[in-house]
Amino acid sequence: MSAAISVSGLRKSFGHIRALDGLDLTVETGEVHGFLGPNGAGKSTTLRILLGLLRADGGTASLLGGDPWRDVTALHRRLAYVPGDVTLWPNLTGGEVIDLLGRLRGGLDPQRRARLLERFDLDPTRKGRTYSKGNRQKVALVAALASDVELLLLDEPTSGLDPLMEEVFRACIAEERRAGRTVLLSSHLLAEVEALCDRVSIIRRGRTVDTGTLDDLRHLARTTITAELAGVPAGLGDLGGVHNLTVDGTRVRLEVENDRLDAVLHRLVDAGVRSLVSRPPTLEELFLRHYQADSAPAAATAPTG
Amino acid sequence: MTALTGTGALLRLALRRDRVMIPAWVVGSASIALSTASGFRSLYPTTASRLEFSTTIVHNGTLEALYGPIYEPGSLGGLVAWRALCIIATLAAVMSVLLVVRHTRADEEAGRLELVGATAIGRRAPLAAALLVAAGADLLLGLLIAVTLPGFGLSGAGALAMGAAVAATGLVFAGAAAVSAQLMDSSRAANGLGIGLIVAAFATRAIGDSGIAGWVSWLSPMGWAERVRPFAGERPMVLLLAVAGFAVLVLAATLLVSRRDLGAGLVPPRPGPAHAPASLQGPLGLAWRLHRTQLLGWSAGVAVMGAVGGSVARSVNDFVGSSSQLEDVIRRIGGGRTLVDAYLGTVMGFFGLAAAAYAVLATLRMRTEQSAGRVEPLLATAVSRRRWAWSHLAFTLLGSAVLLATAGFAIGLGDGLRGGDLGGDLGLVFQAGLAQLPAAWVMGGIALLIYAAVPRRAVASWGVFAFFLLLSELGPILRLSGWVTGLSPFAHVARAPGSSLDLGPVLGLVAAAAVLVAAGLAELRRRDLAV
Q1: Which ipTM value was assigned to this complex?
Q2: In this predicted model, which residue has the larger pLDDT, B114 or B483?
Q3: Cβ within 8 Å, pair A53-B285
């Protein structure tokens, strides 16, 4: 499969503020790719460069095989974009905006439009200035999802949606994936990313710190083990790759790097296992590891992939 | 908690936000009074020279309509008040409207007032703070005029009266804007109504002062300001009219603000079409939706004012009567063959300025769209920046043409119907209107280039426009040399129908506009385009 989006070493500064500092991102055709990062990490800047709204200071970016700055209109016919903060023209109705954006992209499926309006429970006859934030977001979502495009660029598209509508959104994205479209989903809602995405890139301070499938990422992270043993375990603390060990009599709780799992299990078995719970890291833990490193850079000792 | 709790905190916030705008506007407006005083003092040092100058003015209905009557022709103060009072009062009125709307409806629209309103802030506090800011700025301007004019040897009482008249006019329009901000549910519409009222007040006063019916001027706050008569036997009691007007308007706004929801206007929103009409096909269709109300409003205003201006053109001859020497003077001022032509040329010049203002407004719409975040989704579709920019520039270029054609047609119709030679006059006046067009285009080009190069400073376009206005206003008074006044595109416009239309300056202006637009588009293509 060829890459729908391929970005490497992307740099962008606004005055003294460095927004992107050598960002890499590859989105394969047909996949739903999660783009994760705390506020201000550079997610929106990356998307704006991919849309040709901003010009990169350095690095390369290619979108659907073209140059996002040079081939703007040709590329934009093949993609749809939903910004994180949608503002509408105050005197145009939602329906008019949906039709306008669809026409500007080169066409919109009227049946899909009607179905989406119904699913998102959106009244298209209201003027832009009377919509709430969630409803403005729905207008942009319906406009994007009703167009016949290859690539969807979504920048925190569910901000302001209620949980019910978030569920509708997830179902829509699942359908898009079955239809073979590529989706780049920027988000900081981890449950959403976990439910929808094939692969994930985590960025921090304008750099990609982790990328891969969720399994890949988990492999590099630690597994949490809680065990009830027959006897008091010995020498667990001496093993490499064990963290946050607590021993309370015969109860043990520890985190272990996945490539040292084998040695730890041997020691546990030696002590006699009565019950054992092993939990892979949640995306939240993966994310928080980088996030915390962000707030305390001096303590950034966590191994990264 | 009372309805006014938190006014002080909001006031400090407003002053912090306006720390550049208010001083710049106040000092800029006051400097018109000072430069007029200094210019007139050196141009007409003796009573005799001042009387001679005044005589020519009194007999030219146009100049009296524009600036008002001269109450004290022989004194320096009388001339300064005549020339500067109405202009500064208008500037104070515009400042008041912009300030009040900015801190009420605009904040409400942007959602900032919601954030603030959730804190311990009374319902009427934002309105009160906005009015205090505007009133403070008006009084500051009045005070500045009152304390500086005596430095030119003018009487203290007169300077005080002039400052008070300016401040009072500002206050009335601050009150009008407070009401407008309650009635209209967008800041554009609120500003539009406020500015529209200023234009109406100016026009009402101009009609009254043109000598047709003097009492008409009493209907206008600008007329009140003049009738305070600074330096000409001051009548401070007239100020009470303005103060009363201010009080009534503030009361009305206060009542309105407690009767409506946050964010709502008085007219409830109606549902619109669920599908876009066929006309909303591309960027141009969208631009039409965004510009049409404004363009139609301006066209209607221009048509009415043009018809009025045209229909009084023939009466200019009656004012002058048989003095051939005076005719000569006026012809030199207006540059025309006949007095009527000279008058029409002057009137057409005003419409030229209006068309240029519209061109700036239409161009800066791009900036509004961008800062509101509405450009990004548009440019994420198959619309190029160039195509998007042209959709707005179409209104800059063609909209100003529509306005001038309307003006030319309305003036020609008004004049022709009174004069009996409809066919001949209409063609000439129509041409004279279009002769103003290249200058408006240059102004639009300047606005585009400033927006493209420094989007955050796009408002500076109005500064350039004001600078050009000051050049033509003060150039002759300060005896600036030709190349300085020639910086303004309006200096190169033919004073048609009086003088012949030279192709040279027209082509020069069109070429300048083309270069500015091309440079603006190139810059727009090059730079980052985000909120």
Answers
A1: 0.80
A2: B483
A3: no
pLDDT above 90 covers a percentage of chain B that reads 41
Closest Cβ opposite residue B272 in set A48, A103, A127:
A127
For residue range B411-423, list pLDDT tens digits in order.
888 777 766 666 6
Q: Scan residues 378-437 of B and list those with Cβ closer than 8 Å to A.
A: 378-385
B6 in helix, strand or coil? coil
What amino acid is encoded at B355 in this protein? A
B189 touches A at CB < 8 Å: no
Chain A nearest-CA distance from B397, in A, is: 23
Q: What is the CA radius of gyration of chain A?
A: 23
Is pLDDT larger for residue B62 or for residue B176?
A: B176
| Chain B residues lying within 8 Å of A79, measured CB to CB | 380
Mean pLDDT over each residue of chain B, to the nearest integer: 86
Candidates A9, A23, A8; CA nearest to A206 is: A23
Task: Flag if A54 and B286 touch (Cβ within 8 Å).
Answer: no
Q: Tokens at residue A61, please?
A: 């970016």
Using the Cβ of B528 and the Cβ atoms of chain A, whether some distance falls under 8 Å is answered with yes
Arithmetic mean of pLDDT, A47-68: 93
Sheet holding A32-36, edge to edge: A79-82, A151-155, A182-187, A32-36, A199-204, A207-213
Give CA separation, B216 vs B24, B71, B85, in Å: 33, 17, 18
Closest partner residue to B382 (CB to CB) among A53, A89, A106 is A106
Q: Summarize pLDDT for A206-262 with one digit per residue, the tens.
A: 999 888 888 777 776 778 899 998 888 878 888 888 888 888 888 999 888 878 888
* Helix or strand (DSSP H, E) at A22: strand A17-28
pLDDT at B320: 53
Query: In degrees, to the nearest 5, what angle opens at C-alpha B238 toward C-alphas B235 and B243?
Result: 135
User: B377 vs A81: CB contact, 8 Å cut-off?
Assistant: yes
- Looking at chain A, the number of H-run helices and the number of E-run strands are 10, 13
Residue in the structure block whose two tokens are 């008041």: B96
Q: What is the pLDDT of residues B449-498, one digit of tens each?
A: 999 999 988 888 988 998 898 887 777 777 777 788 888 998 888 776 76
Contact yes or no for A193/A36 (Cβ under 8 A): yes
Helix A133-145, helix A94-105: angle, nearest 10: 30
- Count the residues in chain B: 531
- Sheet (strand A58-63) strand order: A17-28, A3-14, A58-63
Chain-centroid distance, C-alpha A247: 36
* CA atoms of A122 and B154, how far apart (whole Å): 68
User: pTM, whole model, 2 decimals?
Assistant: 0.76
**H/E stretch holding A208:** strand A207-213
pLDDT at A240: 81
**Other CB atoms within 10 A of residue A171 CB:** 11
Torsion angle of C-alpha atoms B283, B288, B290, B293, degrees rounded to 10: 180
